[in-house]
Amino acid sequence: xxxxxxxxxxxxxxxxxxxxxxxxxxxxxxxxxxxxxxxxxxxxxxxxxxxxxxxxxxxxxxxxxxxxxxxxxxxxxxxxxxxxxxxxxxxxxxxxxxxxxxxxxxxxxxxxxxxxxxxxxxxxxxxxxxxxxxxxxxxxxxxxxxxxxxxxxxxxxxxxxxxxxxxxxxxxxxxxxxxxxxxxxxxxxxxxxxxxxxxxxxxxxxxxxxxxxxxxxxxxxxxxxxxxxxxxxxxxxxxxxxxxxxxxxxxxxxxxxxxxxxxxxxxxxxxxxxxxxxxxxxxxxxxxxxxxxxxxxxxxxxxxxxxxxxxxxxxxxxxxxxxxxxxxxxxxxxxxxxxxxxxxxxxxxxxxxxxxxxxxxxxxxxxxxxxxxxxxxxxxxxxxxxxxxxxxxxxxxxxxxxxxxxxxxxxxxxxxxxxxxxxxxxxxxxxxxxxxxxxxxxxxxxxxxxxxxxxxxxxxxxxxxxxxxxxxxxxxxxxxxxxxxxxxxxxxxxxxxxxxxxxxxxxxxxxxxxxxxxxxx
Length: 521
Prior knowledge:
4-stranded antiparallel beta sheet; CATH 1.20.1330.10; 521 residues; 5-stranded antiparallel beta sheet; single chain; alpha+beta
């Protein structure tokens, strides 16, 4: 086969150029020790490097999230620990004030310090992070979680939303503790009340406390279904308890309803999970059975109360001044348990919706104003000022099953500021209120402690996932290196070979290009 001179030159030049380019590429690889710079270098390896790069970026983000979560947990734990310490101080003050040796002045001094403790706890419950976000408000980070109402109670303005952050593939943890789980779910042991029905004017001889729930399971299983109960004093040594249907249930009371009149102070009657403080206060010359028999009380769970507020954008300045249940059956069957929104469609007509209101919401009750009162779903709302079309009002029920620490302290402060010197009945009521308050403080401390435990559990999860992520980072780095990085010995050997081959090609071309027929003449 004959090869023309032009053909030879073209082929040789192309081969030389190819070898030269390979040498340049290998030289660059030897300098950087990176063998995959573009997808053309290794299509499969480049695709795998892209996947590994995405995983590496995710792992970096996970590490950042873990650090952020640890910072948030530290702030929340510090606030909760301080709150627990303040609660312990409140408990100590309450225990010191809950005895018969204290005077009104002593109790007022305790109430003043208890008020300072309450404000300290309120400030801690409204703690903010470095960015000004409220720690315990759920997703409403720009809203103070706790504010005081006009009646002295405190409302939780946050929600129950947990703000989750990813810390691993398909793994996320909540970065916040809501006020709902830390403070609002404290069991309220003082959620029953007794009311004297006879005699019409209290003679002070029998004092029966509102009761304190001592066994939640028994209370839920038995007490709630039989209320309201009637407690009748048959004599100075025997009581009778009947349920709402008139059935005698005295056998379920401690000692079958037997009480003492010879040692009548500070007795406890236990009935269906509720402890009732009983005091028999006989006066000089009293015939016990004659003066005690005929006293009757009703005993039931505290009726629901309501927290109300107006929407900021209301056209009118009307506010709700009172909210009461006026039709228990309608309330039980119709009123939304999660709260309601009252919307005025005119100056007098309104609709009641379950909260929150959406585009598909339908009214659960409608009506028109009767004077200054709007009644819907068994609840009557009294207004100060005239509502206008477009007004909206939030109505939040409180069933008293739980109670936050701020409301508990408020009740105790009120009790301590109420004069009781020289009044045995007032002192007995004070002791009962303080006893229930102390129990509720303990409940609140336990709830805050559960929140701290939750933070600890989440922190442990962060540590475990962080260790897993670190192992993945090492594996990712190793895998990327195996695909992308060059072996120094191999690349230097290849470079030397390519350079030698290039030199040989140059020499061969030089020698061959000098050959020709004219050299033989």
